[in-house]
Amino acid sequence: MNWFSRELRHWEKQLLRRWRKDLPASLRKSAASSKTLRNGKISERKRLRLGILCTCLAFTLAACASLPDAGPVHEGEVNPDSRNPLAQLATGPIDGSTPEKLLADFQQACAAGTYDDFGIAKQFLTSGTRRSWQPKTQVTVLKPKTELKIVFADGSKLATGSGQPVLRVNKVGMRQSFREEETVKYELTKEGGQWRISSLPDGVVLTNTAFKNAYSKRNVYYWSSDHHFLIPDPRWVPRKNIAQYLLTALFSAPTIDLEGAVSATEPITKIPSNLVTMQGRKAMVELPDTLRLRSETEMARIYQQVNATLLGIAGIDEVTVSQNGKALPDPAEQSAPVKKQMMLGVKNGAVIEESDT
To answer: Residues of the chain whose pLDDT is less than 70?
Structure first.
């Protein structure tokens, strides 16, 4: 207690000394004549408050002194392909769930489907429906701040979901047409004593927020019809395994609006699921065997298409392309061809030459 009292007196004297120093001369004289300050008779309660105030002030000044106020500016990395740094997660069906609860949880599992390949969502289906359902066929996106409204009928075995979409994309990210209001039919049954979905259409319906968290709008590139420049073809693709989805879109076909303006290879019907392998920040692309490249010119063009499509992805600084284990030459590293000269004749004793072009 004696130590604490001494500390209080010390801080009191320091504060009073600073206070008197900063006062105008007229107020300083008045303060000096004050009995309380002259005699140092401050009550214990005031002294305790003053000590606490001084302690807080000391800690505040120490904290401020530790904050850096100078130094170099460091560039931060922005990752446009990770709107949500944490993958969306969902839980499987809960035993004893009502049909209403089951469908509500199913919608959440569909929102996380691109992160677990719809493994959790399929748990809400009967064993037979699980094998036939194709969730990647299309994605219907509802208007912002709206959800799919579910209405049950016929003893809770049949349900109809309705919503107003703003976007629909197919499995390769192309925009599709949609009605002003879309409906989805569900049929439920009990399997093993638990409610499960026995019938539903292919594809999924997502809220606007869930879609933007799981999907990103990116470009795939096709050559113009005269092969003079690359034309971007926007697609909506999942953020998870985005490079694989972009190449799948690239090797499928251009959108209908671009068909007459671009030159594209024949669409590949069966695209391998391991087109891209990442090694650090390098994307190593193995082209499908079914993609026929008949000349070095075609190899260079497809290399540039793949390069332009993938280099825009955060985390990829380099792209290599190979087929059947053989690396395709990088067009940027190839030297310009040397023009072959040919003699046309002699004029005034000098040889007249011209290039083969």
So the answer is: 1-12, 14-87, 333-357
Which DSSP category does 311 fall into? T
Residue 116 contacts by C-beta under 8 Å, 6 or more apart in sequence? 90
The pair of three-digit structure tokens given for residue 12, joined into one six-digit string: 């009191």
Phi, psi of 110 (to 5 degrees): -65, -35
CA dihedral over 100, 169, 167, 118, signed as positive or negative:
positive
The pairing of strands 318-323 and 282-287 is parallel
Cα-Cα-Cα-Cα dihedral sign, residues 28, 34, 40, 44: negative
Residue 97 near residue 194, CB atoms below 8 Å? yes
Give, as one character, the DSSP assignment of residue 41. Answer: -
Exposed (0-12), middle (13-18) or buried (19+): which is 330, by Cβ within 10 Å?
A: middle
pTM above 0.90, yes or no: no
**CA pair distance 352, 206, nearest whole angstrom:** 72
Tens-place pLDDT, residues 160-170: 999 999 999 99
